[in-house]
Amino acid sequence: MQIMLRFRAGDPNAFEELVERNTAKVHALVFRFLGDAGQVEDLTQEVFLRIYRTVGRYQPTAKFSTWLYRITANLCFNVLRSRKKGQIRQIKAEGNDGEDFSQEIPDTHHEPPYIQLDAAELREHVSAAIDQLPENQKVAIILNKYEQKSYEEIADILDCTTMAVKSLLSRARGNLKLSLQRYVDKG
Fold first, then answer.
1. pTM of the model
2. Are 14 and 55 within 8 A, CB to CB?
């Protein structure tokens, strides 16, 4: 918060410090929301551009990170909405890079490959299920489970009550359970 107040007061170095300290956080959050590495850099720049433009409106009543997360979430909402309208298409391509790894070397420090593949497949299905959630549920789950935000912090970011956050998270968990039921049944 102090850096933002210095920036608002006209300190030219404060904005650079703000960007340096928070870029990784914003990158991770944008990627978790959108799942598209190609958009991470552009949206991260847009987040900091919005901060720069709206510095005069910043009020230190809440934590700076809450304000930062709200800006990031709103921009990601905009992208998700435009995807639904068909304006932006995400294309996932899988291909072989041409390298041949035919030699098997046992690894005693990690789990066997079949277990790693099962875990990777499950992560992929969980990620896809989260992507299918309604926007507010998706944001609430990401902030709670991946960013370890409290109900109060999520309420501040989403501009709602903590009871609304609890309800969002409950519905999101129910939807995820339904989407992932066959994986839960398998154990």
1. 0.58
2. no
